[in-house]
Design brief:
There is one protein chain. About 45% of the residues lie in helices and about 10% in strands. It is an alpha/beta fold and about 400 residues long. It has a single domain, classed as TIM Barrel (Alpha-Beta Barrel), CATH 3.20.20. Strand 8, helix 15 and strand 9 form a beta-alpha-beta unit. It is globular and about 85 Å long. The model has no long low-confidence stretch (mean pLDDT about 90). Belongs to the FMN-dependent alpha-hydroxy acid dehydrogenase family. One of its GO terms (molecular function) is FMN binding. This is L-lactate dehydrogenase (Cytochrome).
């Protein structure tokens, strides 16, 4: 028989304690986010549908993005037990300098549309955490303003090859003068991918309003107040534009670009050069032979060619072929620190994340980006510890199976 008695109120007070109420709504929301997927859910609730869909969506049927995420989900880790993992080192070499974590913030366009704090907020978080940040040609904060916002951050500039080469030369000169130490050339946009979510939503700069977008905006008054009470939203490195994103890309970017253009690039940029958008082993070999310091295996987050190769699957063969002379990075589909650890175990020197930090930005501005880094860094450390690995350089293909 169980003996029962009336509870003593003093004992109950020790067992049941109310969580202190935090009056800061943003901090309260972000504290509940335990994963990047949680930040995504917050972002979906905090921003208009067209803004969220621009970040979240991909090209055509979005098969490439789903395949990339499914590939990460199907990985299998192989932990080693009875290892001394009291100290875990997450630093890694990126272009000859140590980064505090094995990822950088990828270049993204329209960032101030996600949240008015935009690129400056992302750069400040990168500065605090020792993470490189790449500013996009399609950024909504100027090269000089990003440099002023985070003078101690390690900053890279992402460039598209334009029909007007002189515009590209001007951007490279400005980036160099502002202290950006590497150039990322994106090579997978001869034309814009067909991003059907954006077309259906009338996504453009400035926004093209319809009855549906006005109704959706009424559900997100804080976002609209920020939009209309802060400096006008525009491409900081481009002239004003009145059409859709796809139309802008098609008008600016040069489909005649060839390997010969890398020579032009080297004439105008004497720092480290990263080629982003590599999707075959043959192309990785070509740009490595042409002098690239790093290649990014990427299908543009699934936003260009649908049914493109899954970048993660290319990592082992590309690392074996060029990994001694050129660094191999990978992006697309990364949603957790475990994904990052797996990519490095398969042979990547480092990774790039885009949507992961943008979900944080939409969920809570600079503090949301901070939360995204906290989540990813915690997952990286925990995964390494459970695998029995002390340092990024110790990760190897024996730690993971790519199914």
């Amino acid at each position: 028989m169980v003996q029962r008695q009336l509870p003593d109120l003093r004992e109950l007070s020790e067992l049941i304690r109310l969580r202190p109420f935090d009056p800061d709504g943003t901090r309260r929301r972000l504290a509940k986010a335990l994963t990047v997927a949680d930040l995504r859910d917050l972002a979906m609730r905090r921003t208009p549908r067209s803004v969220f869909d621009y970040t979240d969506g991909a090209a055509e049927a979005e098969i490439s993005l789903r395949r990339a995420r499914r590939t990460f989900a199907n990985l299998e880790f192989h932990p080693a037990i009875l290892q001394d993992v009291s100290q875990v080192d997450t630093t890694t070499d990126m272009l000859g300098t140590r980064a505090a974590l094995p990822f950088s913030f990828a270049p993204t366009g329209f960032t101030r549309m996600m949240h008015t704090e935009g690129e400056s907020a992302v750069a400040r978080v990168a500065e605090r955490h020792g993470i490189p940040y790449a500013l996009s040609t399609m950024g909504t904060t100027s090269i000089e303003d990003v440099a002023a916002a985070a003078p101690g951050a390690r900053k890279w500039f992402q460039l598209y090859v334009w029909r007007d080469r002189s515009r590209g030369e001007d951007l490279m000169a400005r980036a160099k003068a502002a202290g950006f130490d590497a150039l990322q050339l994106t090579v997978d946009v001869p034309v814009a991918g067909a991003r059907h979510r954006d077309t259906r939503n009338g996504f453009a700069i400035p926004p093209q309003l319809s009855l549906r977008t006005i109704a959706d905006g009424a559900m997100h008054p804080n976002w609209w107040i920020d939009l209309v009470t802060t400096p006008p939203l525009e491409f900081a490195s481009l002239d004003s534009w009145d059409g859709t994103v796809g139309e802008l890309l098609d008008s600016l970017f040069d489909p005649t670009m060839t390997m010969a253009d890398l020579e032009w690039l080297r004439e105008n940029w004497d720092g480290p050069l990263v080629i982003k958008g590599i999707q075959t082993l043959a192309d990785a070999k070509k740009v490595s032979a042409a002098g690239a310091d790093a290649v990014v295996l990427s299908n543009h987050g699934g936003r260009q060619l649908d049914r493109a190769p899954v970048p993660l699957r290319l990592v082992p063969q590309v690392r074996e072929a060029i990994g001694e002379r050129t660094q191999v990075w990978v992006d697309t589909g990364i949603m957790s620190g475990g994904d990052i650890v797996a990519a490095i175990a398969l042979g990547a020197h480092a990774t790039m994340v885009g949507r992961a930090y943008l979900y944080g930005l939409m969920a809570g501005g600079e503090r949301g980006v901070e939360r995204a880094v906290e989540i990813l860094s915690g997952e990286i450390r925990r995964t390494m510890t459970l695998l029995g690995v002390n340092a990024i350089e110790d990760l190897n293909p024996g730690h993971v199976t790519l199914r």
